[in-house]
């Protein structure tokens, strides 16, 4: 593990990184939020099926 080489590569990556624009940030946040809602909805539907249909759950 060459520590000076590792540190210079990390610094180079940080110099290339930039703050996203508001439009880019809001689009990513919207897509991530939609994914969270869809996963929650899927979990809720599985819960409903397992609890209210006879013989569907343990």
TrEMBL record:
InterPro entries: Prot_translocase_SecE_dom_sf, Translocase_Sec61-g, Translocase_SecE/Sec61-g. Keywords: Cell membrane, Membrane, Protein transport, Translocation, Transmembrane, Transmembrane helix, Transport. GO terms for cellular component: endomembrane system; plasma membrane. The keyword Protein transport applies. It is a single-pass membrane protein. GO terms for biological process: intracellular protein transmembrane transport; protein secretion; protein targeting. The chain crosses the membrane at residues 28-53. The keyword Cell membrane applies. GO terms for molecular function: protein transmembrane transporter activity. Component of the Sec protein translocase complex. Heterotrimer consisting of SecY (alpha), SecG (beta) and SecE (gamma) subunits. The heterotrimers can form oligomers, although 1 heterotrimer is thought to be able to translocate proteins. Interacts with the ribosome. May interact with SecDF, and other proteins may be involved. Belongs to the SecE/SEC61-gamma family. Essential subunit of the Sec protein translocation channel SecYEG. Clamps together the 2 halves of SecY. May contact the channel plug during translocation. This is Protein translocase subunit SecE. It comes from Halosegnis marinus.
